[in-house]
Amino acid sequence: MTSLIPMTDIEALRAAGISYPQSVHAWRWLYRHRQERGLTGAFKRIGKRIVVDAPAFLTAVRSQPST
Q1: Which residues fall within 8 angstroms of residue 24, CB to CB, at 6 or more apart?
Q2: Residues 21-34 pLDDT 10s
Q3: pTM for this prediction
Q4: Cα(30)–Cα(47) distance, rounded to whole angstroms?
Q5: CA–CA distance from 2 to each of 25, 26, 28, 39 (Å)?
Q6: Considering 29, 41, 44, 53, which has the largest number of Cβ atoms within 10 A of its Cβ?
């Protein structure tokens, strides 16, 4: 399985172990606010498509302090 998953493919993201966010709208919000959330390396652009680097996303989320 590839580690680059289209941001709109919620089922593939869940299969990769990412259960949150749960909607495409929430993923788009997270992409727009990626710098302040520390997720810059977790998103890539391939042409017009935005993809999630699943291992980078999981690493970034796990390294953030819980509030």
Answers
A1: 7, 8, 10
A2: 999 999 999 999 99
A3: 0.85
A4: 19
A5: 23, 22, 21, 19
A6: 53
Q: Where are the beta strands (DSSP E) in the chain?
A: 4-6, 43-46, 49-53
- Point out which residues pair with 5 in neighbouring strands: 52
Structure tokens at 42: 């977790």
Q: CA angle 40-2-19, nearest 5°?
A: 60
CA-wise closest residue to 53 among 31, 32, 33: 31
* Cβ atoms of 58 and 17 closer than 8 Å: yes
Report yes or no: 7 and 51 within 8 Å, Cβ to Cβ. yes
For 43, phi then psi, to 5°, come to: -120, 140
- DSSP one-letter code for 42: G
